[in-house]
Inverse folding.
């Protein structure tokens, strides 16, 4: 029988304990998921403790690659936890750090307490007053700058984004043209007829339309399809920026014809936000805060675009229009649900654009 001295046994015990401890140490992603779960369970003090632990681990040399990605998320959740714990001044400071690193967000009232939403709105107002950029919706702020494009005199021009503007007669006439010169003349006259101020060198109507095309191409592309000819892209070209966007998984038993309960915002939440005058912010990639990724194309999702009355074209008879886009495996990606209300609104929107061109 081999006897081991106490110091040796102590050393072995310490060594194996250290190995087990290292093996059991959670990774940064695991800790971040833990902090989000603690926040979801309203355990805000533990959320702050976990965030401090994440920050200490992120400071290690081997975690340098995670620091930039974690910085805005840590500031966001620290600010949210502080706000929920009635520490608004500290919360706003963290939210301002977050806003310096990330776009403004519209927080879901079903997910975040009122204190958190209030602190975020106050931080956004402070940042906006310090860096005034106008009151454009997020769509407009993110749109690429307009650069005049030469006439696209190819045969496919009438099937591109401009199809949202063409009348049936204009499209038929264009498709009968057989040479590039006549097609180019048609396109030039097409835009000239839509110039609201022909005495100026700019064509404001075309500039706005092509700016929307650029934004749609940059944000709504699907596989090999350019964004401006997808269902969402066409709606954006015709109606412009919606008031709110909601997104939620379609689960077994969901009725795709029933919008209740699937919006990111309840109708009361929407009405309260509209009354506050802060209803123009639209978020696409961060509907429930940092670290939330958009679903894959294989997931089943419903996206709802809310348009309030004052953002709809004149002549639309509804106080609010909700346009639904369904993503379902075997069905398609972001397919517009073509109910009577949606089709009527888009038809009136197209007529309004064509009417503007005739003025």
């Amino acid at each position: 029988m081999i006897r081991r001295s106490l110091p040796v046994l102590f050393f072995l015990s310490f060594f194996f304990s250290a190995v087990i401890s290292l093996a059991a140490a959670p990774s940064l992603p695991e800790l971040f998921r833990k902090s989000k779960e603690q926040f979801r369970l309203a355990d805000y003090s533990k959320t702050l403790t976990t965030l401090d632990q994440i920050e200490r681990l992120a400071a290690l040399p081997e975690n340098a690659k995670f620091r930039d990605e974690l910085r805005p998320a840590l500031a966001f959740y620290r600010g949210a936890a502080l706000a929920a714990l009635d520490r608004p001044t500290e919360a706003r400071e963290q939210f301002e750090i977050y806003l310096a690193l990330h776009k403004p967000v519209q927080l879901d009232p079903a997910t975040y307490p009122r204190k958190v939403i209030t602190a975020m709105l106050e931080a956004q107002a402070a940042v906006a007053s310090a860096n005034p950029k106008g009151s454009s919706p997020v769509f407009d702020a993110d749109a690429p700058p307009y650069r005049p494009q030469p006439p696209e005199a190819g045969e496919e021009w009438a099937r591109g984004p401009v199809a949202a503007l063409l009348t049936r007669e204009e499209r038929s006439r264009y498709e009968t043209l057989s040479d590039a010169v006549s097609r180019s003349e048609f396109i030039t006259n097409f835009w000239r007829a839509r110039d609201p101020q022909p005495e100026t060198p700019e064509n404001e109507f075309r500039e706005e339309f092509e700016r929307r095309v650029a934004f749609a191409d940059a944000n709504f592309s699907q596989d090999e399809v350019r964004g401006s000819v997808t269902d969402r892209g066409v709606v954006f070209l015709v109606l412009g920026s919606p008031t709110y966007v909601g997104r939620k998984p379609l689960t077994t038993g969901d009725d795709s014809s029933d919008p209740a309960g699937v919006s990111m915002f309840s109708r009361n939440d929407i009405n309260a936000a509209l009354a506050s005058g802060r209803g123009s912010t639209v978020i696409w990639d961060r509907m429930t805060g940092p670290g939330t990724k958009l679903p894959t194309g294989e997931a089943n999702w419903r996206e709802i675009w809310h348009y309030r009355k004052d953002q709809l074209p004149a002549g639309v008879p509804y106080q609010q229009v909700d346009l639904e886009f369904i993503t379902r495996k075997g069905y398609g990606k972001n397919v517009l649900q073509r109910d009577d209300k949606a089709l009527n609104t888009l038809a009136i929107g197209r007529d309004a654009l064509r009417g503007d061109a005739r003025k």
Remarks:
- The two ends are 104 Å apart (CA to CA).
- The first helix runs from residue 6 to 24.
